[in-house]
Specification:
By secondary structure, the chain is an alpha+beta fold. Helix content is 16%, strand content 37%. The protein starts with 14 loop residues before the first strand and ends in a 6-residue tail after the last helix.
Length: 474
């Protein structure tokens, strides 16, 4: 197969962005051969002969940290003019916080001739975030040719990761590889048919690999969820030589959430008390308290996800500036609920239309949407969905697992344990569009007089609710 040819010395010209030893160790075949395409893919405009992802974690000297390198290596067979048009240019961009240290490309002609990209055929241009993008221009390619490229990205250390291994093109060979120090142990899991990566220890390295062959293309369809159904591999750090128990569990996550969200200074609580005092919560039921607190926060506090720093997380400053970041607004809800005596559980989940949360695989990259559950009313609230109101929550988090913080007290110690459970779907009867018409006729002319009411409930009302929250009362 293709990977059997990834041997030998690196002889072709290289566009080296940085002088890095790792970049010089990744090799492709110096004498590639034109590969055949399976009969089932011959009608496609283009086919990935190889789509390889390799992540390598390299400890620095003297315990100065770990460098992480991600390599993406692809070989594309061009089978018609549409395929040529699509792949005569490619763009490579780093992930958030990452940097590209090497880009390399070449054309393998149908007759076996190899044409390496020159440096002036790989140009750089900053994107809207200021990150450098690399644009590869393959000239003179024809039907039957192959274009091959790989790039290496240096990125920050993370204990979690995911690689989507299925695209809008068929893949003859999809390959995943994770190389880590042997004293780490990762858990891996394949989804939608991609195999779980298996590990082998060679010297000081632990190597996880997973390969899939003849992966069908997957296209977007109306009213379908594309991303959750793509083949992918997820991985997470679970043990080290020093760890006696499992790392990065859901319990560990909720303990972090509890520590960061449920601790308040006296100054903060004083400011929150002043904020909720006009709401006269003592005379209200639990549900009335929830609605009053939500309405007051959404009315008076501006949520800005771009805000950074403690000033927008500290509640006394947040209430003074009337602006808060994600963490600050969530902490304000919690402080209000606590002072008002509203029983609640804070949870984190994901949008199931993008990637659902897997309760059996503790990938902390997945949960990112805050949601409250109220045991007394058995309803939910999403504190950062400014156009929704209790008890309506985004349909993207219903029927999805949530990691809830269940607060427990043992003696004088209060902490939280994880309660992972699924938010139920909303009953069909809760979403409706009712059209009521009261028709009367003028006795003399028989002209109809019509009084019509068009009403919406549940998720059918969400669009109107969003509009109403943005317009003035009149």
């Amino acid at each position: 197969m293709i990977l059997n040819n990834l041997k030998g010395l690196l002889l072709a010209p290289v566009f080296l962005v940085g002088n890095n030893l790792y970049a010089q160790t990744y090799q492709w075949n110096e004498s590639p051969k034109v590969e055949a395409v399976p009969d089932s893919f011959k009608k496609e405009s283009a086919v990935f002969l190889l789509d390889k992802r390799e992540l390598k974690y390299i400890p620095q000297e003297k315990d100065k940290g770990v460098d992480v390198y991600r390599t993406v290596h692809r070989i594309v067979k061009l089978q018609d003019d549409k395929g040529i048009e699509y792949f005569n240019k490619m763009t490579v961009a780093p992930s958030s916080g990452g940097s590209i240290i090497e880009v390399k490309g070449r054309t393998i002609k149908a007759d076996g001739k190899v044409i390496n990209l020159k440096q002036d055929q790989i140009r750089t241009k900053a994107n809207e975030n200021g990150d450098e993008q690399y644009h590869l221009a393959f000239e003179g390619i024809e039907i039957g040719d192959e274009v091959e490229m790989f790039y290496i990205e240096k990125r920050g250390l993370s204990s979690f990761g995911s690689e989507i291994m299925q695209t809008g093109l068929p893949v003859v060979h999809a390959s995943f590889k994770l190389v880590i120090p042997s004293f780490w142990i990762y858990d891996t899991k394949g989804y939608n048919g991609f195999p779980n990566a298996k590990d082998t220890v060679i010297g000081k390295q632990r190597i996880y690999t997973a390969d899939q062959y003849n992966v069908d293309a997957i296209d977007e369809e109306p009213y379908s969820d594309l991303t959750p159904n793509l083949q992918r591999e997820e991985f997470k750090l679970s043990y080290t030589e020093e760890s006696k128990s499992r790392l990065y569990t859901w319990n560990d996550l909720v303990k972090n959430i509890y520590t960061n969200s449920y601790s308040f200074t006296d100054k903060e609580l004083k400011a929150v008390n002043k904020f909720i005092e006009p709401l006269d919560l003592d005379k209200k039921t639990s549900e009335e308290k929830i609605k009053a607190i939500e309405a007051a926060i959404i009315k008076d506090i501006v949520y800005d996800e771009e805000m950074r720093g403690d000033a927008y997380n500290n509640l006394s400053l947040l209430l003074e500036k009337k602006t808060g970041n994600e963490s600050g607004v969530v902490r304000l809800f919690i402080a209000c609920f606590q002072l008002a005596g509203v029983k609640h559980e804070l949870g984190l989940t994901s949008n199931r239309f993008q990637l659902p949360l897997d309760d059996k695989f503790e990938n902390w990259q997945r949960p990112e949407i805050y949601v409250f559950y109220f045991p007394d009313t058995k309803q939910y609230l999403t504190p950062l969905e400014t156009t929704l109101r209790y008890p309506m929550i985004s349909i993207g988090i219903r029927e999805n697992y949530v990691v809830f913080c269940k607060i427990t007290t043992v003696g004088t110690l209060t902490s939280a344990i994880a309660s992972v459970r699924k938010i139920p779907k909303l009953d069909m009867s809760e979403s409706s569009n009712d059209l009521n018409a009261d028709v009367t006729f003028d006795k003399s002319s028989m002209t109809p007089l019509i009084k019509m009411t068009d009403s919406y409930r549940g998720y059918l009302a969400v669009g109107i609710r969003e509009y109403v929250t943005l317009v003035t009362k009149d």
